[in-house]
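Annex B. Sample input.
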Amino acid sequence: MAKYLLKRLAQILVTLFVFLTLVFFIVNAQPGDVSNFYALNPDVPPETRERLQDLFGVNEPLWKQYLVHIKNTFTGNFGISFSHYPRSVADVIMERLPRTVVLFMTATALSFYLGFALGKILAWRRGGWFEYTSTVGGVTLYTVFTPWFGLMMIWLFAFKAGWLPIGKFLDPVLWRDASIDANSVFNQMILTAFVVSVVVFAVFVITGQRRMGNARIIRIASIALASLAVAGVWISSGTVVFAWDILRHMVLPVVTLTLISFAGTMLLTRNSMLETMREDFVMAARAKGLPERAVRDKHVARNALLPVVTSFIFSLAFAVDGGVITESIFSWPGMGQTLVSATLTEDLPLAVGAFVFVGIFVLVAHLVADVLYAYLDPRIRY
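Annex B, continued. Sample output.
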């Protein structure tokens, strides 16, 4: 395994170098630079424009800019953002990236769970009305025009019903006199979700390994206690109203993305399980007298999980690009809007930095998928 990982890391480095080269020349192929925004301003003299070009280094030869770009990428220095001057590109990305990661990872995890659960049922109970309605409804949502569907969700649940905010990341009126900034509250929410996830995962692993008879009761009680503890901490801190405001703004985009995405996982799980059900080990498990639920979950579903997990990992990787359409519809200030604004304002360092980070994340996801394959299927050896 170690030899295989070293080989894959070498391949990733070569691929990353090619990717960095392509991104740099493609982004720099667009005409103009940051000084164009000041060219038509009568209050900005020509000498000021020249100083801006020297400051941002856009008047250097292209080959020199490329070498600096490669060096800065491997040292983690993407330069200064033109449109957010004097903030660095890394600072802007670190501010916007968590918002996109939380939004799309939540939606992807929910769609994966919903699609996998429905896919198991569809494969196990074929030919009924449930299979027909789930397949038709899922495929319809999967192929729907995303901007139209997002706008309809906003119109129905935010504008007409008034249950949820129309868009954006928070309510400016509520945060106007707040003693804490939104990024701090959001980072605390991420930390809380991470701690709760670790605790719940540990409980599931412990109860599963020891095969406790009352494992389900222990799991439910652990989740309830963790939820109560989290609620108590947030209420005592006095910032629960701000966290709730951010959560309310997340509901519509998360639900929209989940409804659009779950059908792909559902159909992939169904087809993979139908193929696995024909294997001899499934017949052997039934011959041993195992319950149907155990045969479905522990034998068929686990072996059918390989392509589904791969699809899940890749969807997480490509979701980091921010979903330009989704974030634009819901005015969510994440990586999607950052990429759009960087392109429109010709903020080349920010655009290159965002693309490079997405590329690195995708390459790492490929490596994680290979490792998961070896873990989920003992038949795979490197």
